[in-house]
Amino acid sequence: MPERVVSVPDIQSLMLPLLQVLSDGKEWFHRDIVIKVADNMNLTIEQREQSSSKKGKTKLSYNLEWTETNLFKANLIMKPHRTCYRITEEGKAILRKKPERIDARFLMAHSSAYVQWRGQWKKTQTEENENGEIENTSELTVKQPDELLEDTFSIICSDLAQELLDQVKSSHWRFFEQTVVDLLTNMGYGGSRQDAAKVVGKSGDNGIDGVINEDKLGLDVVYIQAKKYTDSVTISQVRDFAGALLAKKARKGVFITTSSFPKSAEEFVAQIEPKVILIDGQRLAQLMIEYNVGVTVKNTYEVKRIDYDYFDENEL
How many independent structural domains does the chain possess? Predict the structure, then answer.
């Protein structure tokens, strides 16, 4: 049986939720931001508690630290105190435009300060303060090289996910169905690619687009709804899918779309049986990257460290 995938929102996916938390104009400490963002995004216990490579921090807290840094460098938020943040007038103006997503590409187009920072963030910058002392003005220089590499990788993946989703949205609906087949097969569902292709996108039975084996032996099945939409999926469409599952006496279903789901749909599926998983466009793109669908490896880098055991064993 395929292992359950637990994904924590990346740095760029957290930008809009974080700014929305600060929209009340109050000062928020980082620890409170983490809790509020997690609540607003309906994150699971696993997503909230997943540990990061940085000792003592969860992955969510670590990603939000970098989200705060990005929005701070774009002048959308300010830091009245250490680890304390408040929205700026520029940030309020951005929210009034009601953007669907805020990411690095968005910030590059709306903040000259952010453009300058992105161009200089690898450099160590110093300047004199009023007392003539030299102080470091680059928050990034306090990071270890491996941490910088990890954060850069996260930004690259987020940019790639957006470009990948744009490609899927512009494709033919039959190609989208094939993409769903390829993804589910790579994740371990459906047995062979040929077996999966026979069922996904062929049924159209009362809101069900296909049925796919959960394992190679076909011991259990998962019902699929795959829709290439531009507008958000409605709660009624999710209810229809859940009703179709009940009519089939099915226990599991996956609703995949290139668009998004309203919060009401997420609340609905959390309270019902059978189990229904909602995969929106952003999650779809992340899974495609993770399971190598529609992407190829450009470069591979090995990060090495000192083997202290080698020196201990050979010490005279």
Answer: 2
The overall pTM is greater than 0.70: no
The reply to whether 117 and 209 lie within a common domain is no
Q: What is the pLDDT of residue 146?
A: 67
Bond from prior residue into 274 cis (ω within 30 degrees of 0): yes
Domain that holds residue 33: 12-123+136-143
Question: Do 187 and 291 contact (CB within 8 A), yes or no?
Answer: yes
User: Does residue 176 sit in the same domain as residue 107?
Assistant: no
In a domain, 40, yes or no: yes
Contact (CB, 8 A) for 223 and 208: yes
pLDDT tens per residue across span 164-217? 888 898 888 888 888 888 898 888 887 666 666 555 555 455 567 778 887 777
Which tens digit of pLDDT belongs to each residue from 165-175? Answer: 888 988 888 88
Q: Is 1 inside a domain boundary? A: no
Q: Assess whether 99 and 194 both reside in one domain.
A: no
112: Cα separation from own chain's centroid:
25
Domain harbouring 43, CATH code: 1.10.10
pLDDT digits (tens, 9 = 90+) for 124-135: 443 434 333 333
Q: Which of 100-114, 196-210, 216-230 tops mean pLDDT?
A: 100-114
| Angstrom distance (rounded) from CA 120 to CA 113 | 11
How far apart CA 3 and CA 301 sit, in angstroms, is 27
> How many Å apart are CA 199 and CA 217, to the nearest integer?
15
- Cα distances (angstroms) measured from residue 93 to each of 19, 64, 90, 226, 296: 11, 22, 5, 36, 39
Those residues whose C-beta lies under 8 Å from the C-beta of residue 174, and which sit 6 or more positions away, are 201
Residue 192: which residues within 8 A CB-CB, separation 6 or more?
185
Q: How far is CA 150 from the centre of its chain?
A: 15
